[in-house]
Each structure stands twice: as structure tokens, then as C-alpha cells.
Amino acid sequence: MVHSKSLKTDILIIGSGIAGLSTALKLANNHHVTILAKASLSESSTNYAQGGVAAVLDPFDSIESHIDDTMEAGAGLCDRKTVEMVAVHAADSIKELIELGVPFSRCEGEQCTYPFHLTKEGGHSHRRVIHAADHTGHSISETLINNVENHPNITLLPEHISIDLILNKQNTRCIGAYVLNKIENAVYDIWADFTVLATGGASKAYLYTSNPDTSTGDGIAMAWRAGCSVGNMEFNQFHPTCLYHPNDRSFLISEAVRGEGGILRLPDGTAFMEFYDARKDLAPRDIVARAIDQEMKKHGLDCVYLDITHKSLDFIQEHFPTIYERCLKVGIDISRQQIPVVPAAHYTCGGIVTNQHGETDLTGLYAIGETAYTGLHGANRLASNSLVEGLVFADMATKSIEKAYKKPLDNNEAPLPWDSSEVTDPKEKILVAHDWDELRRVMWDYVGIVRTNKRLKRARQRIRNLQREINEYYHEHTVHSDLLELRNLALVAELMVKSAQKRKESRGLHYNLDYPLTLKKAKPTILKHKKQKN
What we know:
This protein has 14 helices and 18 strands. It is of the alpha/beta class. Strands 1, 2, 6, 7, 8, 9 and 16 form a seven-stranded mixed β-sheet that branches. The two termini are 40 Å apart.
């Protein structure tokens, strides 16, 4: 392990998805910004998002309708003021992306009421999802990266994974982070006036997920260790339709396929969603995922099927070129064959508690995007509300930081250098690989789509045992990225289970067979760290 060195920046942004990159571009006009990415800049959940961005763009749609749809999908747990704020500012955020050069799909023909094509997804009452074919996230990510790479006030540090946040002596302000440079195998302490966590979610806690390997809950874990509150960690959204194929298990089949007429069927061809919800295949994701899970268990199936074969080949290739080509590579022609699908962990609806400006419990620390709990998603996220959340809160956090810069900052103390004098290099890493696998299987088996008190109790016991092993290993050995991710994931898994045990009802994404009813009064689950004063 190379000895530590110090770096100084105005703004430290940890994460290179839509939230982090958007914030960087806004702040870099007046400040020096450093962006950390634990892998390449493009390896984020944003890059893999297919569907699109939800916003009221059609003149026949309304802000109130978007608010109502979000509130209904959130099963009573959304914060209405936050929902209103996002719905009101969404269109302006889309305009900024268009001006940056994101190549959204154009609308063609006499029926167009907006220059770009708008699709409809589950839970939406109007067509309000703007997209770039079925590779929206990739197009947004590519555009934002091109812009930050050419900005003189932005320093990019790919292949750097954060270890922990650095606090002042009073533990009241975040003044940066300890970071592992994976290429040099060196630990840096990066000193910053403000730190922004835009690290994404924690769906890699589950055995089957649509997320990239980077989704290990790093920001949530670091913020919790630093003393921040977390909220609604029991609500992990399972996307209903992930491709079921041994050669491509993590590929998502966009909800837009159902939005354009795709039908979920059993192997015998029976369409089953009509038995679960009047909206059929366009019901919110929690309902569709539970329906698929129930049908698979009832009939002993490995998967169900999504049928879009009634659409023409030209239509499919125009609207879903990525999905068409990806399925074709594994031998499935979706214009003639149904797509085998299963639910997979997809989105973390809870996270670090923030206000409407992205501010956390710690002065100088912000959290935006999937890593944050803002009250927007409640007990279930409405489709395509995630990318727009990242955009709107990037703007809100920027305004808050700029306002804070107008006052004297109380962060003159430099961080202590990283101390690795009493640790040794690990002789073998099999423990990390074994614990990683066990943790994800425990979460999938016991804290999945359907839960029970007994399953949650077992999960918590096993996760605690794993944490003891992981923490002992962490304190005795030099750090490496797999160990850091495992440490974070185990902590976030514990927070998920602890939150699930606190909820004595079934609501949205949290379905407990021991508490099948929904309580009349909806309350978020807020966990406060013991460091906080009561």
C-alpha cells in the first residue's frame, strides 16, 4: 500500500451518474469540482437506464396528474411537497438536457403535440416519458461525460473508490473523504469545502439484480457511519422484467415494452395481470413484480414471458433497438418469440435522509439521486421518476451550495492522513468472495419480494455474523475495492432488515405475510444513528 497523500478541491462529488455529473456542470461555473468514479466514468446505473425521464411536456398532460400518479404509486408514503417540487421543475431539467445535446427520439407525424416522442409506462396516466429509443440513460450519460471532460474547472478521477467521509473534530461537518486510488493502490485524503454523495443505490445486496456491479450502497453506508439518518430502507424496488437467460441474467427489459403493448403471459399463453389489477400490464411495478412472483411459485415456473410479437418488426426495431439486438444475441427474436423474464432487484427507494435541497444531517454534506431519501418515491417509485429526481436535486443542491459559499466556512482544519501502519496485506481473499455470495443469497431468500417475520429475523442474525467477520478482516488488512464494497453492502443490508422489521404492515414494495394489511396512517421509517443527539 502506497502512503497517503492529500488533495484539495472546492467541491468533491462522489459518483458519476446523472445526479453527480449534472451537479458538477452547474457548480463548475464558479468553483473547482473533483468527480470520483469507482470504475470508469460511464459505469453507473444511469448508463443502463432504458426507459426515459418523466416530465409534463405534452400540453394535454398536467403537473397535477404527474403528482397524483407519483403519490398513488408511492402508496401513501410520498412527501407531497417534494413530489410537487420535482413535477414542477422536471420540464426545465429536460430542456437543459436537450440544450446539452442529448439525442432524444423525435416525434413524427400529424399527431405530435410535442417535438419529441413521449411514451407511457406503468402507473402513468399520460404519455410523459421522454426517451432516446431504449438507451436513454446511455445517451444522457454519454452527453454529460462529454461536457464534463471538456470543462477546465472539473477534475475527473475514475477508478477511485471512497473509503469513508472525513469529519471535523466536533463531528459536525464533513470536510472530505478518504479515497482509494485503485490503479496506484494508494489512499488519498481529499479535502473539500462541500462533499456531494451521488453514489447510487444498493441493489447488489441481492443475488439477482438489473444494476451494475457499482451499486453497493457506498454513499448510504459512509453517511450512516458518519452519523447521518437513513429512511425507508425496507423499500427496494424489484423490476418485474429482467431477461431470464443463463448468458445474460442482468439485462433489463424496459417497462416501455409494456407501455407500448407488451403482455405478460404464462408458458401456456395465458395473460395473467388482469387477475391482479385493473390496469393489467401497466400496473405499478410493486404489483406487477408480486404478481409474477406469485405465478412463478404457484405453477413452479423459472420465469414468465413478455409478449410483444403482435407489433411489427419495424416498430420493434425503431422503439427497442437495444433490447431487440441484445435478445437476438442470445437467440431470441422478440418480433417472433416471447421474452422469458423474472423480477430482479432494481432500485433503492430509501437512502440518506435529506431535505429538499439535498442537505443531510451533516453540514457540508449533500446526498442526491438514488442514494438519498427525499420523500419523492415513498413506498414504491413511479417509473422514470428516478432520472428526473437526479436532475432536479442537482439543481437544488447547487443553489444551496452557492448560497452557503456566501457565508464564512468553518472548515479550516486539515484532515488527518490515512493510517495503515498496523495492518498487513491479505494473504488470501476467499473470505471476501464467500461472504459476498452468502450475503446476497440471504437477502434474496429472506428479504425479497415477499417477507415474513421469521425470514427477517434469520436474515438479521446471519448478516450480523457476516459483519463481525468483515469488520475484523477490514481492521486487520490493507483495503482493496472488493473489501470496501462488501463492508458497505453488509451494513446497508442490515439497515434494510432493521427497517423492514420496524414496519408492521404491508405497503408498496414491502409485503410481509405476517402483516398483510396496510395501516391507515402512513409513516416513513427513519433510523437515527446513535451519534445523533436525541
